[in-house]
């Protein structure tokens, strides 16, 4: 009776003290995450997994709020918000990261990664980690590489099978010098613009085409305004799941660890989902009325040959060592 009461009171006092002292119980907090793609995308499915893990493992103490479809701005704008500390997280392609640090252009060189398994090994290995870590000098905490994936070319005018077919086409690209140079080399007229403006631009024939992974072409309904998809695999786009360094620095270590772990785990799920959904996308596009063209090995090789000088052209800007290092990693993981 009485003794129990005294003991309980003592325990309450101790836990209250602990709550106020140096080892403060972590506060409640909200993490906002913005992305460019819509809620059907594999990217969003990855975010839902992230939310599930963080909310479960923090027992609801951390709430994760998701914003799709460029509601919070395009990739570049969201990265600016991360750097300013006004948004916690986003997940851009590597392409716009080159606006902060040119060495990131290395991942967007044409026909760089031979397959997804090698991309995983390079990006999840020490070299990928080095790139993630280097973002801290830009005010960004790199959490993990996720996958946007191999990019394919769509347009409303011609069934593209060879580099010559691309000539004169107005193609929307991301804002990345390597992407622009690659399409210029192919004879296209590349026009960079944010993804949020793309659908309307194609509808109004401001551009003839664009390039994105098959899932995006399908889930963003580009088939409504595009006739031809050519499976060119010309770039492999990694995503980078990232956090505001400014906000990160205010988090207790246990929250940092939870977020980093959840971001990596969600990334494994996101890549898997991405690859599964990619399997269906081609048939779905055909059902929706698009002509989907798979290139013969000779046709595919013609695109590789036409863009083979791009890496050399950007070697100085990216840094010769950086290009060599990434290429050596790819070579290492490619042989088996
Ligand atoms: C693009 C990219 C985008 C993604 C997304 C906005 O073409 O592929 O779909 O970066 O987060 O802009």
Task: Outline the structure in words.
With 336 residues, the protein is α/β, with parallel strands linked by helices. The chain has helices at residues 2-20, 42-57, 75-84, 116-124, 126-134, 163-166, 177-185, 198-203, 214-219, 245-248, 253-287, 297-306, 310-318, 320-334, and strands at 29-34, 62-67, 89-90, 140-150, 152-155, 170-173, 189-192, 209-212, 228-231, 236-244, 291-294. The strands form two sheets. A six-stranded mixed sheet has the order 7-6-8-5-9-11, sandwiched between helices. It has a five-stranded mixed sheet with strand order 2-1-3-10-4, with helices on both faces. Helix 7 links the parallel strand 6 (170-173) and strand 7 (189-192). Helix 2 (42-57) packs antiparallel against helix 11 (253-287), helix 4 crosses helix 14 and helix 13 packs across helix 14. The protein starts with a helix and ends with a helix. Bound molecules: (2R,3S,4S,5S)-2,3,4,5-tetrahydroxyhexanoic acid. (2R,3S,4S,5S)-2,3,4,5-tetrahydroxyhexanoic acid (TF8) binds next to loops.
